[in-house]
Amino acid sequence: MMDLIKSKIRLMLSNGDLYLMMAPFLILFLMFTVIPVMSSVLLSFTDFNLLEWPSFVGWDNYVKLFLEDKIFTITVKNTLLFALLTGPLSYFLSLFVAWMVNDLSPKIRTLFTFMFYAPSISGTMYFIWSLIFSGDIYGWVNGFLINTGILNEPVAWLNDSRYSLSIIMLVQLWMSMGAGFLAFIAGLQSIDRTLYESGSIDGVRNRWQELIYITLPSMGPQLLFGAVMQISASFSAGRISIALAGNPSTDYAANTIITHVIDYATIRYEMGYASAIATVLFMLMLITNSFIRRVLRKYN
Amino acid sequence: MALNLKLLRHRSTNHTKKISRSGWGNLLVLVFLLLLAAFSILPFIFAILQSFKPLDEIFIFPPRFFVNRPSLENYYLLSQLTKNMWVPFSRYSFNSVFVSITATVLHVVFASMCAYPLAKFKIPGSKMIFNVIVLSLLFTGEVTAIPSFILMSRTGMINNYLALILPPVASSLGLFLMKQFIEQMPDSIIEAARVDGSGNFRTLFSVVMPSVRPAWLTLIIFSFQGVWNREGLEFIYNEELKMLPTVLRQITSSGIARSGAAAAAAVLLMIPPITIFILSQSNIIETMAHSGIKE
């Protein structure tokens, strides 16, 4: 045992320059991510209103969350809808589009990539959808449907619990060709062309075989990156919901776990409880993450 | 490389046969791609057209996609609004450009410096460090805002450029991306550099970085765009240190009369990230063709 530790320490000392290289990033990461995240997990066991010093309450927040909070159940259901529908759909769409676009000539490829990435570029572009689905007659959808005689009076799309969630899922999908998509493009660009040549000698006959036998196995790291970004994005869906449907939305129809966190953290100032919700969300994402890593293992 | 062609090998008969592409399938895929592209870009174009609509045209029935009488009214109003500010507009622009460029450069350099040892050396702790960094991507920012604020105020970063620059420099996304790409590089190239007597720093910047060009060109897009759109309202009280998005939102957020100016501001604010995007994307070329062998 002692020998093992000694040899580890020797290995660390002999690689001092490598640790030095990592130091600047790791120090900042410790300050701005590790410490805040750990404090937040600790806060989830306290009652903290931002004014008084947090008081320790044990598992109270979690008990309240699981046993008493009716709205939390709704938000979990909605979040899972985002995670199970928009998440995978957007992942495969990103991969497919990146693969299609990759074959185009550089100028056209840049143009297409831009068209798909444009919604993500400003971070607040989704506000345009509140004009499109606006509840008055000046809204695009209402204007069109009334003008063509399908509707007689405007529908408050975003404030109607029958429609709000589906519309927000559509907008979430619209915004989701982001980090994962560009990483796929870059990954495809990094694949060695000679692999395709030797592939065609080895009998790869069509594009689908090319995709399955050459392209996908060569971009395992990017597939994993895209998956983690997608988990993170779809489980933390909520900002769009708040911007378009408000917080709370009508009948909580479009509320997600994140809108619940924001509600407690920035409106009710119950930081302890908000941290408990965030910690539960983190656990949900951890489970999904380890599942997806297992699925993608054969490519890594 | 996990290339498994054993299954196909014995089936192959014609070695010179080219990859076939069926005409109908191609057409179908193209139509699908175009429809998807339209869904993606039309709301974006709508937002841009909206900024050229005079106020009375924003509220007409039925609403129109195109502009009847395009005007620069909104942009003129915006320029009038920016003229009357206590701090000159150029100062805010400088803040935004300075902060975005500094943070992006530092982020790409530090993230690569950290990713290279994690990807290519089995040193004690590297696996644990990498896992912590990836998992941190799954924790939501909303609840860490308060602890970060306390930490920043204790270290004197409030009301300081550092509050805007430093947090995005250590963003986990960039490290994850760089590590994933560096990992793919064949060890033989790195080994060859070592044999030639190149130290770790030199190998990183003269051998590794050139061959993962698509990765850091992409990272530049994410990073610049992230910092550019960052508001940092809670960290900056000093008017002279505020960034453009914050200021433009402040001056255009006073009701319907200024909604046109707000649309114009939103369009103008997108120009720098779009420029970076186009520059970077059109430079992602097939790097492997130039940088030597790949296993």
Overview of the molecule:
Chain A has 300 residues and is mainly α. Chain A has one domain (63-299): MetI-like (MetI-like fold, Orthogonal Bundle). In chain A, 72% of the residues lie in helices and 1% in strands. Chain A has 15 helices and 2 strands. Chain A has a two-stranded antiparallel ribbon. In chain A, α4 runs antiparallel to α12, α12 (220-235) packs antiparallel against α15 and α14 packs antiparallel against α15. The longest helix of chain A has 33 residues, at 70-102. Chain A is flat, with a radius of gyration of 24 Å. The two termini of chain A are 32 Å apart. The mean pLDDT of chain A is 89. Chain B has 14 helices and no strands. Chain B folds into 2 domains: 39-71, no CATH class; 86-289, Orthogonal Bundle (MetI-like fold), CATH 1.10.3720.10. Chain B is mostly helical. In chain B, α4 packs across α14. Classes of the chains: A mainly alpha (300), B mainly alpha (295). Chains A and B meet through α1, α2, α4, α5 and α6 of A and α2, α5, α6, α7 and α8 of B.
